[in-house]
Amino acid sequence: MFKVGEYVTRNSYNNDIIFEIISINDNTCYLKGVSVRLYADSNIEDLVKCDISKDLEENKEFLNRIKECRLERSDYFYLPGKILHLDGDKDYLNRCLNYYKDINIMAMGIVVSEEKMPFQITELLEKYNPNILVITGHDAYYKKKGNINDINAYKNSLNFVNTVKAARKFESSHQKLIIIAGACQSDYEELIKAGANFASSPKRINIHALDPAIIASRMSLSDSNLDIDLKDIIENTKYGKEGVGGIITKGTMYRGYPR
Known about the structure:
Blueprint: E1 7-10, E2 19-25, E3 28-33, E4 39-43, E5 47-49, H1 52-58, H2 60-66, E6 77-79, E7 83-87, H3 90-102, E8 107-111, H4 117-128, E9 132-136, H5 157-170, E10 178-181, H6 188-194, E11 198-199, H7 211-220, H8 230-235, E12 245-246, E13 254-256
Parallel strand pairs: 7-8, 7-9, 9-10, 10-11
Antiparallel strand pairs: 1-2, 1-5, 2-3, 3-4, 6-13, 11-12
């Protein structure tokens, strides 16, 4: 009935998320969210095929809105902050890199598995010297493993926390290095305490694949002399304050004159 590469939804979850089938083993399909940073598995009987255009149509308004983040031409020239984006998923990383490119922001993207991030981050920061660091990939909260305050009940939150801590050892200032960390259902409180400026997920919900890039781009294009409009930046993400939270900082963009 099903093949690798086909798009499906799950009846038991009211067909709320569109997945791509990435592998099949006996009666089980292993899935990856098309727009949501989520891995899952499902019994074949629970799946329904769907058209990918449905996801594109549902996200059309959102995608058009976030691409409006551009600099207007004026008498000034602009120097947006540089972004280093670490991602545990190649497909999601490529989507984020295309988004940065569409709005003319300099970003370096590297695929790094979540468990390796804490051990590679210092070398990468030394090499690329970014103003903004994105640490993301896949995560999940497993209720059976513990309550939401137990970081060991999460798939990758501890890896993200350790990566943030290592980055803060390299640069302790929240202003000199802005860190955006987390993925679906991540331990928001521990990421913020570890030193992230922004993190997911306050309500332990799934986040959109582009949410970390949206925050990074807003910080890249925000004035270095002014405090950001925190609520406005967070509300630009797909699920707003339920999916992402953060602290007030200044932006990273410098303006110069004349063009």
